[in-house]
Design a protein that fits this description.
The structure is a single chain. This protein is mostly helical and 145 residues long. The protein is 39% helix and 3% strand. A two-stranded parallel ribbon has the order 1-2. Helix 3 packs across helix 5. It is globular and about 50 Å long. The two termini are 15 Å apart.
């Protein structure tokens, strides 16, 4: 069973579980319902978040107080796992439990994409890093787990 401490976000816990399985050459088996999802989900790479902050502080004007910076792609659980396998050769995945809700057990699974048009219009920001690239980056930069 995946173990993480209270200080680890569930998104980070998912990423760490994938990286750990890949590094140990053990099949990834996620049973924690909070780390599974129906429909689609959006995961923002920390590099995208940093680039969005730089774009916001560099913008001559911010016409609105909040901007959505979600990635260009929302992914199903199967798409997430396919991108993880592509980014981390040798990773095997097995999901013995099917998701019953959205990510983190959110009762209303995401059915549509987040509108990021204001960030593109006002900040010139478009997320560049998708899930697979984020996992590959995590694998390259994280110390041993």
């Amino acid at each position: 069973m995946l173990r993480y401490n209270e200080d680890t976000s569930l998104v980070a816990a998912l990423g760490l579980a994938v990286i750990k399985a890949a590094r140990q050459r053990k099949p990834l088996a996620i049973e924690d319902q909070r780390l599974l999802w129906e429909q689609t989900e959006e995961f923002i790479d920390p590099r995208n978040a940093a680039e969005a902050v730089v774009a916001a502080v560099s913008a001559p004007e911010l016409p609105q107080p909040v901007y959505n910076i979600a990635p260009a792609q929302s992914v199903t659980l199967e798409q997430f796992l396919a991108q993880a396998r592509a980014a981390l050769p040798g990773l095997e995945t097995s999901i013995p439990v099917r998701p019953e809700a959205g990510f983190m057990n959110f009762p209303n699974p995401r059915r549509s994409r987040t509108d990021t048009s204001a960030a593109q219009r006002d900040l010139g920001f478009v997320a560049r890093h998708e899930v697979g690239a984020a996992l590959a980056y995590m694998n390259e930069t994280l110390p041993s787990l």
